[in-house]
Fold:
Amino acid sequence: MKQIRFHGRGGQGAVMASELLCHALVHEGNYGQSIPAYGFERRGAPLEAFVKLDDKPIRERTQVYEPDGIIVLDSSLIAQLPVFNGIQKDGFAILNTRKTIALDDIPQEVVTLATVDANRIALDVFHAPITNTILLGAFAQATKLVSLQSLSECIESNFPRKIVEKNLVAVARGYHEVQVISRNTPLRKVD
Amino acid sequence: MGKIDVLNGNKAAAWGAKLSRVSLLAAYPITPQTPLVEYLATFVSDGEIDADLVEVESEHTALSVLQGGVFAGARTFTGTSSQGLALMYEPYIRTSTMRLPIVMALVTREVISPQTVWGGQQDAITVREAGWIQIWCESNQEVLDTVIQAYKIAENKGVLLPVNVCYDGFSLSHMAERVDIPEQEIVDTFLPKPDITHVKLDPEEPMAVDPLTAGPMLTEYRHKQVTAMKYAREVIEEVRQEWLQLFGRDHGGMVDVYRMEDAESAIVCMGSPAGTSRVAIDEMREHGIKVGMVRIRVLRPFPIEEVTQLLSQVKAIGTIDRNVSFAAGFGTSYLELKTAFGGKTMPPMIDFIGGLGGSDVTMDQIKQAIVITQYVGQGGQYRDVTWFGLDEVNIQELFEQSPQEEKEGIL
Structure:
C-alpha cells in the first residue's frame, strides 16, 4: 500500500484533489481511499487530506501518519508546518513553490523531489490560486503512480461541466512544467 | 457485475435509497449527514429517483412526514446525526411502536456538549432502547448494500420495524473508496414493491392509528415489538444469505466474524474500527498472537447467541468502543457482552475507549489492545478500561512481565 498526505488551505481543493486521485486510481483498476481530515473548517486555514492506494481492498480506516509521499498545495505551508513529518524511506515530495529547493534542504528520506510554480499557472488558468489539479499533474509526472490520461478522464467524468476545460489545462500544465530531481539520478528528464 | 465507482459513505447511502426505489424523502441537513441530503436532492432533480422530496424545517418534521408517507403506502428514506436525532426523538419513538418500516441513515457523531461536530457513536448509542433495529457498517460497500437489505428486513410482515443503518461520521461518511454499485434489475428481484397494510390511510376504509392506549394493551404492544425484534434475527440471517447468492458479497448477519476459528483472544468492536482491526489482526498473527474479531453488526436486536457461542471459546476479550455507557464507565459493547453472557461463565474482558470526538482509532491503538488482551488471556492483570489518549499504555512494560518474551519488539 502507498500512502499520500496532502497539505493545503481551506478553499484550495485538497479534498477534491484527494477524491479525484482516488477516482483515477480506481479507474486504472486499483483500490483507493480518500480521507479528509476535518478540523475547524475555515477558508485559508491549513488542512490535510489523505489517499491510500493498493492493488487489493484497503480495510484500514485511519488517517495517514507515515506517508510515502506528500503533496503540498500551498507554497507558504512548507515553511510554516512540519509537512515532512513521518515521511518514509524512498519518499516523494510534490511541492508548490517558485523557489529552487535543493535535496540538501529536505529530509534524507525524500528521494524524489518535484517542484512546480503552481500559483503562477493557477493565476494564468483560473485567475485564482486554485492549485489542486496542477499538483496532481506534477504528482503523476514525478511518481508515475497514476497516468495523466486517467486524471484527465476523471476530471471530465466527475467535475462540474463548467470547470472541466480549465482543469484539463491545469493538470496538463502541472504534468509538463514540473521540475523533478532525484537522489538516485540527479536530474530526471521530463516527458 | 454492477458498476465500479468511488463513493463516500453518504453517497453510498444515497445510492442504496435510489436502488431501493424509495418514493418519499424528507431530511434536514446536519453535519456529517449533510452531503447525503445533497446527493438525494440531486438524484431527485436529475430525475434519477422517482420520489417526492419534501423540504422540511426540522428533523422532527422530516420523520413525521415519512410516517404519513408510510400510511399512504410509500417506501421512505431519511438520515440524520447527533443533534438532529435529538430533535427527532419524539416521532422517532412513535415510529417503532407504530411498526413503520422506515429506513434511516444514522451518520454517527458525538453529541453536544461539549460543542463538537465530529465523529463518534454516542448519538446512536443513546437511542438503542427506542425500538429501532440498528445495523452498523464497516465500509461504504456495506453502507450501500445494507440500505437495500434494511428495507427487506423492515418490510417483512413478521418484523415491521424501522431500521437505522449506522455508519461512522467522517470515518465513513466523508471517506471515499471503491464501491460496486449493484444493477437495478437484480435489486428489483431482491426487493419487491412495498406492501404495507397494517396501517393505512384509506378514506374508503378509515382506520384509527395510535389512539390512547391503556396499560394492558400497551403491555401487549411492547411484547409484540420485542417478539418482532426476536424474529428479526432470523430475517437478518435470511437476507444475508439471499444477498450473498445474488451479489456474491457477505457483510455478516447479526455479527461479522474474522479469523476466529483458532483464536485464543478476540477483539470486539462496531463500525469503522473493524476494518483497521482486520489489518492489525493479520499482522499480530504473523507474530504468533492468535487473535480474531467479532464485529457486532447488529446492536438491536443484540446477537446474544452468536457472541456467547463465539466468545466463550477464547481466553480473553478486548472490546474497542467509540462510545461511553454511563452505567459503569465502560463502552457499550463491553456492557452488552456482560449482559449477553448473564450468569454464564465468560472469559476475562477488558475495554478500550477511543475515537471520541473525531479522534482516529489508530493502528497502534488497536495493536496495543490486541497485545494487552492476549496478555490478560495468559493470566496477566490489566486495568478494566483503558481510555486511549488519557491513560498511559506501556506495552514494553507488559512484555517484560509476559511469559512470552520472544514477542518483544513487535510494536
